[in-house]
Amino acid sequence: MREGHLEIFEILVKAGASKPACEEALLEASYHGRARYVELLMGSDLICPHIAVHSLVTACCRGFMDVVDALIKCGVDTNATDRVLLQSYKPSLHTRSQRP
Predict the structure, then answer these.
(1) What is the pTM for the complete model shown?
(2) How many CB atoms are located within 10 Å of the residue 33 CB?
């Protein structure tokens, strides 16, 4: 991660980025393993608990332990549940075939 990107990100969060923008950024940061971004966003008080839980599940599924640690340190409920859609590489497994 380039230091300039982090500085720009910090400025945007501190300048009052919208709640939906911050929540989307948290999900993306969790998906891409950006623990520092996760910490900044969780410190903004603009993240709903269910979005934080979804980010935790995403980071767990992708194996980003540093992101998982950051979310837990920021108070994400580890006992919460989140619905995750699992997809197969074979689309025929998730569609119902229509047979006569």
Answers:
(1) 0.73
(2) 17
